[in-house]
Write a structure and sequence with these properties.
Elements (H helix, E strand, L loop, with lengths): L1 E5 L6 E8 L2 E6 L9 H5 L2 H11 L22 E5 L3 H6 L9 E5 L4 E2 L5 E3 L6 E2 L2 E7 L9 H5 L2 E8 L2 E2 H6 L15 E2 L5 E2 L9 E6 L2 E7 L7 H9 L9 E3 L20 E6 L3 E9 L9
Parallel strand pairs: 4-16, 6-12, 7-18
Antiparallel strand pairs: 1-2, 2-3, 4-5, 8-11, 9-10, 9-16, 10-13, 14-15, 14-17, 17-18
């Protein structure tokens, strides 16, 4: 079972899809909610939607040709864990962290999985990062253990944590968020898959640029597991339903020096097993000159 939001930005329709013997049925969630958001998730929305779909009380919907938006409405917070794969830390010239490294992205970075990415004026080092994202389903504050933390996760999704490395590392003033917050720099989706249907410890993550392979790894290589991440964060801040947590990226990014940075005209594709696939074309922001080849 998977949850999506489809339609034009700001006017998406929430839907649920059920796959049976290779056939996918799509149902309109509008009778239950206007959006897949924090209140919906906290109120057992995924469970209620699943039961309603099985009972046949939701109308079917043909979404062929519709835009796919982010599978959750704009989150209150986007929290990100850096250097959470040992090989990625090594290619970045850093030792694996002893504690989770936290940085923040603004909610307006969240976009649909196939939306065009606008490269900001002045950007010369836009980078890709395939990541497992988790969505919080109930408040998480001062949790007692990683096991308890797992119960606070509503579901999982695929995200591209796009980064502007000059702004992140050279103009940061010591933190990373400046290079992470260009509008649309967190393409999310296509789906939100309920937590009970996903083993987050053994997912294959891959990315491509212009059809050429870049990243190919597994969440088995995470330094801090998703339970450890949520438990750790809850000691310092209160996670709210609908919040988005990005869990880090594996090796194979442009920061390694092995690949060129992204430019307008490039196409990025990303995939996580069971969580779907994304495709974004990069174009120069029409409000500025942007980088050129």
């Amino acid at each position: 079972m998977r949850f999506l939001q489809v339609g034009e930005p700001g006017a998406e329709t929430p839907v649920v899809q059920i796959e049976d013997a290779g056939e996918v049925s799509t149902f309109d969630l509008s009778p239950l909610t206007d959006a897949i958001d924090g209140p919906f998730l906290e109120g057992d929305g995924l469970g209620r939607a699943a039961r309603a779909a099985v009972e046949g009380s939701l109308p079917g919907l043909d979404i062929e040709g519709w835009r796919i938006g982010a599978p959750i409405a704009r989150p209150g917070a986007v929290l990100c864990i850096g250097m959470n794969y040992a090989a990625h830390a090594a290619e970045s010239g850093a030792a694996p962290p002893e504690r989770p490294v936290l940085f923040l992205k603004t909610p307006n970075t969240v976009a649909g999985p196939h939306d065009t990415v606008l490269v900001p004026p002045g950007s010369e080092k836009t980078d890709w990062e395939v990541e497992l994202a988790l969505v919080v389903g109930r408040p998480a504050w001062q949790l007692s253990s990683p096991e308890e933390a797992l119960g606070c996760i509503a579901g999982y999704a695929l995200c591209n944590d796009l980064s502007e490395r000059t702004w992140q590392l050279e103009e940061s003033g010591g933190q990373w968020s400046k290079g992470k917050c260009a509008p649309g720099y967190s393409p999310l989706g296509p789906w939100l898959v309920p937590a009970q249907e996903v083993d987050p410890s053994a997912l294959r993550l891959r990315s491509w640029v212009n059809g050429e392979p870049r990243q190919d790894s597994s969440t088995a290589d995470l330094i801090f597991s998703v339970g450890e991440i949520v438990h750790h964060l809850s000691q310092y801040l209160r996670l709210e339903p609908g919040d988005l947590v990005l869990t880090g990226t594996p090796e194979g990014v442009a920061l390694s020096g092995r690949f060129p940075y992204l430019r307008p005209g490039d196409v990025v594709e990303l995939e996580i097993g069971g969580l779907g696939r994304q495709r974004q074309e990069l174009v120069a922001d029409p409000h500025g000159a942007g980088p050129t080849r």
